[in-house]
TrEMBL record:
Residues 4-33, 34-63 form the 4Fe-4S ferredoxin-type domain. It comes from the Bacteria. Pfam families: Fer4_7. This is 4Fe-4S binding domain-containing protein. It comes from Anoxynatronum buryatiense.
Length: 257
C-alpha cells in the first residue's frame, strides 16, 4: 500500500538519538551511530520524531510500504521492557530487596552563615581562599533523576535544578551559581531515555508543587532532549512557575540564560 512514512538521511544524522526516544513505537534504532528505521510495520506515519531532530535528517514521504502493525509494535515494546527488567534484576545487589542503600533519600543541611561572609561572590571567595576544597552546595541525595523517588520529602515546594550531566564538569562555579539553594536532579539526554525522564518529571512536578525550575544544558544538539523533557513535563503537569533555561558552552562559558 502507498502511505506516509518517515525517511532518514543518514548523512545528516548526528547520532543524538532524540528521534529514538521520541518514537513511542520503537521504529527507530541506532545502527553504527546513525538513526535507522528498523521496519516499515513499526512506523505509524504520524511523525512524532520529526520535530525532535536538530539537523533535519528526518522527513515524511509517501511510498509503497507495509501497513502499520500495532500488534507487532506492542509485542516489540513488551519484549524490550522484559529485557530491561531482566537487566535491572541481574544488577540488583543480593539480599537487598529495596535496592542499593545509596538510593536512600536524605536531605543535606548546609550552614552558609559566617561572621565574615556576605552573599556576594567576592566575600565567598575571600572566606574560602585558604581552603583547598571548595564547599559543596549539594542539598540532597541521590541526585540521579533515575534514582530520585518522586515523593522524596525534599522535593516539596523546592527550587528544582535539572542539569545535564556534563554541565557540572564544564562550568567551574556550578555549585555556587546553580546548585546552591536548589534540589539537584541530573541525567544525560543522549545516553538515557528521555521519554522516561519526561514521565518521571511530570510525576515529580504534579506531586510536589515546585517553587521554580531551572534547566542547564550543554550547547551540543543532543543535549536538547533534557530541555524538551522538562518542558513537556511542565505542560503535562500543568505547572506554571518561574522557569530558567541555561546553555553552557563546551569550553565552560555561559552562553545563554
Amino acid at each position: 500500500m502507498n502511505r506516509k512514512i518517515i525517511e532518514i538521511n543518514e548523512a545528516l544524522c548526528n547520532g543524538c538519538e532524540l528521534c529514538v526516544t521520541a518514537c513511542h513505537e520503537g521504529a527507530i534504532e541506532m545502527v553504527d551511530g546513525k538513526a535507522r528505521l528498523i521496519s516499515d510495520v513499526y512506523c505509524d506515519g504520524l511523525g512524532d520524531c520529526l520535530p525532535e531532530c536538530p539537523t533535519g535528517a528526518i522527513k515524511m514521504i509517501e511510498r509503497e510500504a507495509a501497513p502499520y502493525d500495532e500488534a507487532l509494535v506492542m509485542q516489540r515494546i513488551s519484549e524490550r521492557e522484559a529485557r530491561e527488567a531482566a537487566v535491572v534484576k541481574e544488577t540488583a545487589p543480593a539480599g537487598s530487596p529495596c535496592g542499593c542503600p545509596g538510593m536512600a533519600a536524605k536531605a543535606i543541611q548546609r550552614d552558609h552563615t559566617t561572621s565574615t561572609a556576605s552573599s556576594s561572590h567576592e566575600s565567598y571567595e575571600q572566606v574560602h581562599a585558604d581552603h583547598h576544597q571548595a564547599p559543596s552546595e549539594l542539598s540532597q541525595w541521590p541526585v540521579q533523576l533515575n534514582l530520585v523517588h518522586p515523593q522524596a520529602p525534599y522535593l516539596q515546594g523546592a527550587d528544582i535544578l535539572i542539569a545535564a550531566d556534563c554541565t557540572a564538569y564544564a562550568y567551574g562555579d556550578f555549585h555556587r551559581d546553580f546548585i546552591k539553594g536548589k534540589i539537584t536532579l541530573i541525567g544525560c539526554p543522549k545516553l538515557d531515555d528521555n521519554q522516561h525522564y519526561q514521565e518521571k518529571l511530570t510525576e515529580i512536578f504534579r506531586l510536589n508543587n515546585p517553587k521554580s525550575i531551572t534547566v542547564t544544558r550543554m550547547q551540543v544538539p543532543c543535549c536538547g532532549g533534557i530541555v524538551s523533557a522538562v518542558r513537556q513535563a511542565m505542560l503535562a503537569a500543568q505547572v506554571i512557575v518561574p522557569y530558567r533555561e541555561v546553555t553552557i558552552g563546551t569550553d565552560g562559558t555561559l552562553l545563554q540564560g
